[in-house]
Sequence to fold (250 residues):
Amino acid sequence: MVWDALPQEISDFCAALRRVPETERTADVLAGLQGAFNTTWRSGRTVRSGAGIPIPPPRNKAIFPRACAIDDAELSFIFALGDSIEKDLFPARCDFQVKVSGVAIYKDSVLVELQDHWRVDTYIEPKPATAGIGAPREPHPLIHFQRGGHAQDAFAGHELFVPGDGLGEGEWRSLLQSPGPRVPFPPFCPVLAIDYAIGQHDGNVHRKLRAIPEYTTEVQRAQTRLWEPFFAAMATSAALRKRWLGSMLL
Fold:
């Protein structure tokens, strides 16, 4: 089937990533996971990165707070094909999460650690037998873009996180972030997720990569395999649109 060679295609994608200095680390870490990818793909048609894979960080444009300096960025993913990809065109899981890290220094001695988190999630509907868990109050498209996540919750839970109880009296200002909006997204495989994240963070690096024929071959192969049948079916199948958009669709 068309998905059988996914681990090898990720390996070929690594070779193309290594052609650009800014993505050599991405390629090295991704290549180091290749053995695990091969094993889990054979046993359960799943690949997962576990720890984050370094990717080029965002360019220093429109970054808040303005005093911050970006240190690094990483991406983690889980992709599980499931048993019915040919039938309904959705992988069982196609999640990826991005963490961006930085610091800001104030008054020459106050150092503030910073993180930003964004992700694409597959909504897993709770089983009826799951105690205490029902349908979400807000619409959750099956595959959706969202800010934050569990990694952000853990980071913000630190006792020194600000704003927090440690602030003194007076009026302070900070940016607020809410869970929404949950924007419907097409399904992504690991190759498409990495290509997308790099493109969003640094267009210059992205253009360098897409000038490499081996790179564009792997991205085009992934788009053709996953997106062409997905969008073709979306145009003709009301049931598929309902599954994708969930309770958003009347």
About this structure: Residues 213-236 form the longest helix (24 residues). The first strand starts at residue 46 and ends at 48. Residues 59 and 203 are 9 Å apart (CA to CA).
